[in-house]
Design a protein that fits this description.
heterodimer; A: alpha/beta; D-Maltodextrin-Binding Protein, domain 2; 16 helices; 10 strands; globular; B: mainly alpha; 13 helices; 2 strands
């Protein structure tokens, strides 16, 4: 009797063990996790549930949420598509946290990769992740925005983002008798005046969002200085004709560090996430903040007229700016590629109203052959007009295709810029950039 | 014989889980550590290149330094103060349950939730600085996350807060195995409080202390979650730990082979330290 009971219990435990090992389906929300490496199999079955003919097809759309790109924002886009495309359902998979690249890689490694992914450029340098885009879809987009990876076009340009300018509190400027600075010396004078009045000139994010520390300065000033010194920087760095530890970069980052040492930045920057820094700026914690075009869209959306914006003057007097194109990709291993491409085509220009809605939330520009425009608010119009006569240059760390930065290098730059923010020697940091770049390029 | 067969069958499910979730990944990590692999494309065997790189990687050296500092500080604090608290609780009588619960509560809380809460407390505009300001101690206000020292101190505070209760319970359990007659004998022999501690308590709690010290060393050498939430390894790389480096290299830089090599090296270090500690403690154990 005891023996039979023992056998029975053992069998029940074995069955429960096997029952717990069911394959997981992708959840709509998942956090990044320290998954163990080396799971072995590279085959990644997607989560699209391809059912028998006549039933709905479901595709997964990998997205990220911000203050402007909310759950309701995505829900409307999905609702528009589903209404016009009965038989295709779309589920969101949200990449939480700031490191979306690692999130997508984790999902790919675990076999849960979405059918359609935003910010596909992060993974596109690796062969086999995204499907080659059909020519008839590519024909709808501006050829200047298209890019190839090892000779193949595997990503679709979704939107173009005008990069960063300096927002300021209008009331504080008026109270201090300040005007929007047009030259570098005027900008320094503005900072000094604000500081002398007992206020904080600038603020940025810190450990909460590594990009928010150095990238505002990098994008609005340093990038243009490097492109001025090395017009083909990305090609040159790949070919080994130029190093990261170059005079132009040392000079630009030293200027930035001098501003920090002069006390122009909020003392608590390193404590803040980007959202906290933005909130602190809006609540009067600083008078100015270098931020993206999405901030202008956000202020306009909230009918907030308390803030103005100007292009950050360049220390070398350059009048240039950069934009970044962001791409979508359809997973090579998607079981519903046709439905996935249909969704991409619909949102990115197929339905003009949906595309306008998609672009307007973050103040983005279209990448279609025929530009898609929409009514923008006053601050966004000012943002665009600030660069009406400026020269457009590539953004070094966002160049897609064969001259893209190696995976992880942009995050490395962001962390190194934090080191510079807290006082590390600029030249020493940049020497380490060359070593890291060489290692990651292998 | 029959009992053995039934025992094996009962142990089998656990054995299968252990093998699948622990042994196989470790073996796979060891295999991948000899390759160059981005986690997606083809694997390329490169021999011991990843292990050679360990010694020239300045970012890893920085992570090792940070991990060593955190480990030494936390191990000393949680074991010394854990023992002190346990000794006090051992004298507390009926009220010891309340205090034991209070001190153990942080242990059962989610590390992620705790990290977020402490981050908001220690932030420049957080509760602590606001309290200092309201008390008129404006000169004490600081940006604790703005420097390596400040950020490491913040991480250590949270780790101590989380772990102290657990080690206190370990020491309490060890203290409660010490026979009272030995303390009485010590008193009869003219011993004072220090003599009781040195000659009775310490020798007899060596097994418990070994477990506590070993667990604290292993836990702190693997610290990741508190760092990820509170500082994200920052400012810059100033608070990156070894495990943070492993994750960043593996999933951020697509260097699965190299990150596996770091993980294997960490595994060997932890294993070596564990063997050393257990060997040393076995020589200090006293049998009654």
């Amino acid at each position: 009797m005891k023996k039979h009971i023992a056998w029975y219990i053992t069998i029940v435990m074995m069955v429960s063990l096997l029952a717990g090992c069911s394959s997981a389906t992708a959840e709509t929300t998942a956090g990044t996790s320290a998954a163990t490496a080396g799971e072995g199999t590279t085959a990644a079955a997607t989560q699209a549930s391809s059912t028998a003919a006549g039933e709905d097809v479901t595709i997964k759309w990998g997205v990220y949420e911000t203050d402007n790109l909310t759950a309701e924002y995505y829900a409307k886009i999905i609702a528009d598509f589903e209404a016009d495309n009965p038989g295709i359902k779309v589920e969101r998979v949200i990449a939480t946290g700031d490191d979306r690249g690692s999130f997508w890689k984790t999902m790919y490694a675990s076999g849960s990769f979405p059918d359609v992914v935003m910010e596909a450029e992060i993974l596109a340098t690796t062969d086999g992740i995204f499907a080659e885009v059909p020519e008839d879809i590519l024909a709808n987009f501006d050829s200047a925005a298209l890019c190839t990876y090892n000779g193949k076009t595997t990503t679709i340009p979704a939107m173009k983002q005008l990069r960063m300018q300096c927002y300021y509190n209008i009331a504080d400027f008026e109270a201090l008798g300040l005007k929007e600075p047009k030259t570098w010396d005027e900008f320094l004078a503005v900072c000094e005046t604000i500081k002398a009045a007992g206020k904080t000139p600038l603020i940025c994010g810190g450990t909460g969002d590594i990009w928010a520390t150095g990238q505002p300065w990098w994008i609005s000033v340093t990038n243009q200085s490097i492109m001025n010194a090395y017009p083909n920087f990305n090609e040159d760095i790949v070919a080994g004709n130029v190093k990261w530890n170059n005079d132009a970069l040392v000079k630009s980052l030293t200027v930035w560090q001098d501003m920090i040492k002069s006390g122009y930045y909020h003392k608590g920057c390193m404590s803040f996430s980007y959202s906290q820094a933005a909130a602190e700026f809006q609540n009067g914690g600083s008078v100015m903040m270098i931020d993206g075009s999405w901030a202008a869209a956000g202020f306009d959306g909230a009918n907030n007229t308390d803030f103005g914006v100007f292009a950050v003057p360049n220390p070398e007097g350059l009048d240039a700016y950069c934009t970044a194109v962001s791409y979508w990709g359809v997973a090579e291993q998607s079981e519903n590629k046709e439905a996935a491409f249909k969704f991409v085509q619909y949102v990115l220009g197929g339905n003009q109203e949906t595309y306008k809605y998609f672009l307007s939330a973050d103040g983005l520009s279209s990448t279609t052959k025929t530009p898609v425009t929409y009514d923008q608010g006053p601050l966004m119009n000012k943002f665009v007009s600030n660069w009406a006569k400026s020269t457009l240059v590539p953004e070094i760390t966002k160049v897609p295709g064969d001259y893209a930065m190696p995976n992880g290098f942009e995050a490395y730059i962001c962390k190194s810029l934090q080191n510079i923010f807290t006082g590390s020697d600029v030249a020493s940091e940049l020497k380490a950039w060359d070593e890291e770049y060489a290692m990651l390029k292998e | 014989m029959k009992k053995d067969k039934v025992s094996v069958l009962f142990a089998l499910p656990g054995g299968i889980i252990y093998t699948v979730l622990l042994v196989i990944p470790i073996v796979l990590a060891l295999a991948i550590s000899f390759t160059q692999w981005n986690g997606i494309s083809q694997i390329k065997f490169i021999g011991i290149e990843n292990y050679i790189r360990l010694f020239s990687d300045s970012r890893l050296s920085n992570a090792v330094s940070n991990t060593a500092i955190i480990t030494v500080v936390i191990v000393i604090i949680v074991n010394v103060f854990g023992l002190l608290l346990a000794m006090l609780l051992n004298q507390a009588g009926k009220r010891s349950n309340i205090f034991r619960t209070m001190f153990f509560l942080p242990v059962v809380l989610s590390a992620v939730a705790v990290s977020f809460i402490w981050k908001s407390i220690l932030s420049y505009t957080g509760v602590y600085n606001n309290l200092l300001e309201s008390l008129g101690l404006v000169g004490w206000i600081n940006n604790y996350f703005g420097s390596r020292t400040g950020a490491l101190v913040c991480i250590c505070i949270v780790e101590v807060w989380r772990a102290l209760g657990f080690h206190m319970v370990l020491y309490l359990a060890a203290l409660q195995t010490v026979p009272q007659e030995l303390y009485e004998a010590c008193i009869v022999d003219g011993g004072n409080a220090w003599d009781k501690f040195k000659s009775v308590t310490m020798p007899l709690i060596v097994p418990g202390a070994t477990v506590s010290i070993l667990m604290s060393i292993i836990n702190e050498l693997r610290v990741y979650d508190v760092i990820k939430i509170m500082t994200d390894g920052g400012p810059g790389y100033d608070t990156e730990s070894i495990v943070y480096n492993i994750v960043a290299r593996g999933f951020g830089n697509n260097q699965m082979g190299y990150s596996s090599a770091i993980a294997v090296a960490l595994f060997i270090v932890i294993g070596s330290i564990s063997v050393f500690v257990m060997n040393r403690s076995s020589k200090l154990e006293v049998e009654l």
